[in-house]
Amino acid sequence: MVADVTEAEVARYLCDAVALFRKRRGRNPGKRWHEIPQSGIHALLRLVQHQWPPAPKATCAADRLRLAICNEYETWLREERGLAWASIDAFLWGARHFLAWQLERSGAEDLMEVSVGGHCKVISGLMQR
After folding, report:
1. Model pTM?
2. Which of 33, 42, 91, 111 is the most buried (most CB within 10 A)?
3. 56 occurs within a structural domain
4. How far apart are alpha carbons 70 and 92 in whole angstroms?
């Protein structure tokens, strides 16, 4: 069922599609060929599952904290700043990487002080580099 499709299944499908392309045409597709079917598949899955790719799952307390901060940051970007989804995705990418780095460097204790209001400029600044 489409509602139950996983990232691994999409990756397997794309590998099969490349093999079929090779069989039919006698050559490999271009380097970025996979982006064509992949974008359509992702759009369909966003429609059916209401989010694609699936939200990352927290594996520990630090991950739960990082995800909570990113969720708060996403809400702030959407509701207070009124940004487009593409911009929000880009800023969230920077936030996730910054927070992962911060966790590795200082641990979860220092993340307790991180909040959207106090650190949005730091996270946004990472994306402008």
Report:
1. 0.52
2. 91
3. no
4. 7
